[in-house]
Amino acid sequence: WFGNLGSVFLSLGEYVKAKEFYEKALAISMEIGDRNGEGKSCLGLGSVFFSLGEYVKAKEHFDKALEISLEIGNRRGEGLCYQEEGNFYDHLGDKDKAKDFFEKALSIAVEIGDVEQEALSYLSLGDVFFSLGDHDKAEDYLEKALSISKKIGCAEGELGCYCCLSWTKLSQGNIEEAHSYLLQ
Fold first, then answer.
1. Cβ(44)–Cβ(23) below 8 Å
2. What is the pLDDT of residue 182?
């Protein structure tokens, strides 16, 4: 329950409260030997520290979460860790490392049938390729993300795709298509 409360407060941007709940969840998970819960708590704390701009602590927690996921064979957890590592490197401007982690996350999402993570990975890769100037590849990934997001009814994912696609079209000088994506 504490981990779920941490997630709620993280999504609300209340990082101090999120941190408190994730720390409680981590302590309990460690006390009872719940490695899966420990990994989830570390991943949550990594996200909190990332949001607070405490990147060294964020990286430490992401690495610990990945280590646990690999140790216990939690493929979904592993994929989530790769996604967060990709976000970490993307934020720091290391697009090549970000791309590598997003590709790992995508591979696992496809392997285990996690379509929500698959859409997020495609969106993240589209954004990275846009930043690298490869607009065709960016558009391809963004269209895949959009298709999946529509299929599963993920409005937030659709919004992200439309925004990124509009930037891609705008950078190609195609103002009409960019405008069309923005209206959608």
1. no
2. 84
User: Which residues lie closer than 8 Å to 179 by C-beta, 6 or more apart?
Assistant: 166
The DSSP secondary structure of 88-134, one letter per residue, reads HHHHHT-HHHHHHHHHHHHHHHHHHT-HHHHHHHHHHHHHHHHHTT-
d(C-alpha 65, C-alpha 75), whole Å: 12
Distances (CA, A) of 122 to 65, 146, 164: 22, 9, 12
Q: Report yes or no: 137 and 150 within 8 Å, Cβ to Cβ.
A: no
Cβ(29)–Cβ(41) under 8 Å?
Answer: yes
Radius of gyration of the chain (CA): 17
Model pTM score: 0.89
Neighbours of 56 (CB within 10 A): 8
Amino acid identity of residue 156, one-letter, is E
| The two structure tokens encoding residue 82 | 């790769």
Q: For residue 184, what pLDDT is reported?
A: 85
